[in-house]
Amino acid sequence: MWLLMRFTACLIFAVILSGLGFALAQEKHQIDPMLPGSLNPEPLPPLQNPNASTPAKEMFARKSTPVPGRPRSIGIHSKGCLAGAVPLAMNGPGWQVMRPSRNRYWGHPQAVHFVERLAKNAKKIGWNGLLIGDIAQPRGGPMLADHSSHQNGLDVDVWFTPMPDHVQSRKEREFTEGTEMVTPDQLDVDRQVWTPTHAALIRAAAEDPVVVRVLVNPAIKKALCRDAGSDRTWLYKVRPWYGHAEHFHVQTACPEDSPDCQPPTPTHANDGCTTDLDFWFKESTLHPPPSKPKPPLTLADLPAACRQILKAR
């Protein structure tokens, strides 16, 4: 009997810890940490008998090379794929790529050219250089983890951490942690790390002509609203979203060479600093209850052209 009681008590304690761990994971997810990469990434094993119900992310993650030919962004950022992708150089004049083991530094040339322009403009405001996170996989499509977007090669993640004064080693690129710009209660930026230059960098991105939206943590949007001054037009493009406390997410427009690209919903013609922003600081938004995960996308959920992108050699 004593053993049974002890076993039951241990089981109850384990369940409590599990629940606590899940709750903490939910809180940490709100802060959106930049997960580490790997020095020796293992290739994914071949899929056994893929069928119509096989998640599309499993298929696209196994494509390590792009489809040759002219660049084409297909579908939308959350349901799409990419042909003719080009890689962003690991090191450029004003940027370095982070987490290269993920093989997510591919994009439509428009996204790559955006990074090149932003790197130049960042120098003008005193930013040492860009650390670039995910753009897209070699053929775009859904990713195994971290994103529901970044599928058509037009999204770019830019770290809030400035580039160091040296060319980073592979270990640094894979394991350096991002700088968290938001206080633990998620109500404001951390003034120990947030600077006017961070705001200027976001503005430089938003003012680029191909950019349609910049996603930031709501606390960062709040700080931008507070300090923007009278010229607020650029704030129209800067919108709050969950996470994004260590990087900001740039969405660029559909390129002219991509008729199958579906443009994202345009932002409202206002600075988003009033009632739109209030929603993000409600208790139910800051600490949402656990939700049932959505089923993964299959090929049937993506544009028909994505099947050909997968089959191409």
Could you please describe the fold and organization of this structure?
With 313 residues, this protein is an alpha+beta fold. The chain has one domain (54-286, 296-311): 2-Layer Sandwich (Muramoyl-pentapeptide Carboxypeptidase, domain 2), CATH 3.30.1380.10. It has nine helices and eleven strands. The chain has helices at residues 2-31, 56-60, 109-124, 170-175, 196-206, 218-227, 275-278, 283-286, 305-311; strands at 72-76, 79-83, 86-87, 91-92, 95-97, 106-107, 130-132, 155-159, 211-216, 238-240, 247-252. The strands form four sheets. The chain has a four-stranded mixed β-sheet with strand order 8-11-9-10. Strands 4-5-7 form a three-stranded mixed β-sheet, covered by helices on one side. A hairpin with a 2-residue loop joins strand 4 and strand 5. The longest helix has 30 residues, at 2-31. The model is unreliable at 1-29 (pLDDT under 50).
